[in-house]
Design goal:
3% of the residues lie in helices and 46% in strands. Strands 3-2-1-28 form a four-stranded antiparallel beta sheet, with no helix packed on it. A four-stranded antiparallel beta sheet has the order 4-5-6-7, with no helix packed on it. The chain is built from two helices and 28 strands. The chain is globular. The protein is mostly beta strands. The chain folds into two domains: 205 residues, Lipocalin, CATH 2.40.128; 129 residues, Methylamine Dehydrogenase, Chain H (7 Propeller), CATH 2.130.10.10.
Length: 355
């Protein structure tokens, strides 16, 4: 089933605001627009919720972050890996990999409004200008560039290394860096012509990717190299310039509210490392237990939310002291949770990456 108008509202209003949302090559903090403590007034009608895709249950749990209680629970497609905010942050998409579909969710009601058919969507991103949606088809080693209005295919890029699953974009959006978890490679792709322009072999199992605040380097979590850590990749030369050991199973990455630190989820250690981006060294490690996966920050930046992938829970940590605030039971094998609405001009997708 694919309603003719499903998924189009996330792009219809985008063109009018794209001119003001582009990133400058000289921008000193690509995350500057996420520094506010409150969401924009355009989200006034949307309740704050945390959406949790349960991969093995084919369900989504919805948590009220004020009470830490599950307030809704519903079925989606098979193997839902992430809940992805649309570029204009008007809709949410649940990436149902095994069902080859996206479940569209209205964040005002928190309910599903339709289905979009795309092949095996493990992950979903949007270029910074909002012109292209990128469906990450991990099973086919392919990035599908699609029109976010119609979801028609614009072009595809085959990644010659297995396990492509996470990415981030340059400050101006001209290119992206994508990790291949099973191949130990990071690939550079030109988003305009949709072609590979470089690769670097990093070994291990590279996963999440984040651009540095100044746009000069990319950080890539690696859960399989040297017991886990973070690569620093120069995108101009496509070379690794440093490796920062963090902990076993380094998986998810998220910048702090002030863009001075990078949080690293060490999934097999049950810990969170805090990297000082000025020194590129670990400044703190929080022993939180569980199995931290992908992160989300509360709009005010005081709470770090994440799914405990192997524990069937969602955890909340106080970013001011690293203490565990709450652990909330959810479904089986929770993955890419989304705290929504949140702060930023637009969404780059995944489970909520904003600029």
């Amino acid at each position: 089933m694919q309603p003719a108008n499903t998924g189009s509202s996330s792009a219809r209003g985008a063109k009018s605001s794209r001119a003001s949302s582009g990133q400058s090559k000289k921008e000193t903090n690509v995350y500057a627009a996420t520094a506010e403590a409150q969401v924009d007034k355009r989200f006034a009608s949307m309740p704050e919720r945390v959406y949790v895709p349960n991969v093995a249950d084919a369900t989504v749990d919805v948590i009220d972050p004020k009470t830490f209680k599950v307030v809704d629970h519903y079925a989606v497609g098979e193997m839902p890996h992430h809940v992805t905010p649309s570029w204009d942050m008007k809709e949410l998409y649940v990436d149902n990999e095994a069902s080859s579909s996206l479940t569209v969710v209205d964040p005002k009601s928190g309910k599903s409004t339709g289905i979009i058919t795309v092949p095996y969507p493990y992950n979903l991103y949007f270029t910074p200008d909002g012109e292209k949606a990128i469906v990450v088809v991990e099973r086919l080693q392919t990035l599908e560039f699609r029109d976010p209005h119609t979801w028609q295919l614009l072009g595809s890029v085959y990644i010659p290394s297995p396990g492509v699953d996470h990415m981030d974009f340059s400050a101006d959006g001209d290119y992206l860096l994508a990790s291949s978890e099973w191949g130990g490679v990071v690939t550079k792709v030109d988003t305009k012509v949709m072609k590979i322009t470089g690769q670097v072999e990093v070994g291990g199992e590279p996963v999440d990717v984040k651009l540095s605040p100044d746009g000069s380097v990319f950080y890539v979590a690696n859960q399989g190299r040297d017991f886990g850590g973070v690569h620093v990749i120069d995108p101009e030369t496509m070379r690794e310039t440093a490796f920062i050991p963090t902990g076993k199973g380094a998986h998810g990455l998220y910048p702090s509210k002030d863009a001075k630190s990078l949080y690293v989820a060490n999934r097999l250690d049950g810990s969170i490392s805090v990297i000082d981006l000025a020194t590129r060294k670990v400044s703190d490690t929080w022993e939180v237990g569980g199995s931290p996966d992908m992160f989300q920050l509360s709009p005010d930046g005081t709470q770090l939310w994440y799914a405990d992938r192997y524990n069937g829970t969602v955890s909340v940590v106080d970013t001011r002291n690293g203490e565990l605030i709450r652990r909330i039971p959810v479904g089986y094998y929770p993955h890419g949770i989304t705290y929504f609405p949140n702060v930023g001009r637009f969404s780059l997708g995944h489970n909520g990456v904003y600029r």
